[in-house]
Amino acid sequence: QRNMEPIYAEGGEAQIVPAGVKDLRACTSCNLVKTAHQWQQDGCENCGWTDGWQDATTNRFHGMIAMMSHERSWVFKWQRMKPTYRPGCYAVKVDGYVNVAQQDDDMGLGGDDDAQ
Prior knowledge:
Blueprint: E1 24-27, E2 33-35, H1 36-42, H2 53-56, E3 57-58, E4 61-67, H3 74-78, E5 88-94, H4 100-106
Antiparallel strand pairs: 1-2, 1-3, 4-5
């Protein structure tokens, strides 16, 4: 893996960009694109999960866009991205599904098995 210096957006926030072009995966919830190593190391900065990256990401996605400033981006509006999304690279379309149970567990939202 290359050691890359962070790239900063206009507001001073570090952009989330893939560290390479091999093993790219997209989050099935927010469409953020990073390498498998980055997912394993950092989780998803938009969705908040850090574990279960294999279930929450997919290598089946189409196209990629770079969103660096959502205040001025028509692509941001066209893709219906949330204003809380971090600057970075995003898949235009993701083939996959969100494993809601896994994400709930990762975020501490899982149900109580003993409740009736």
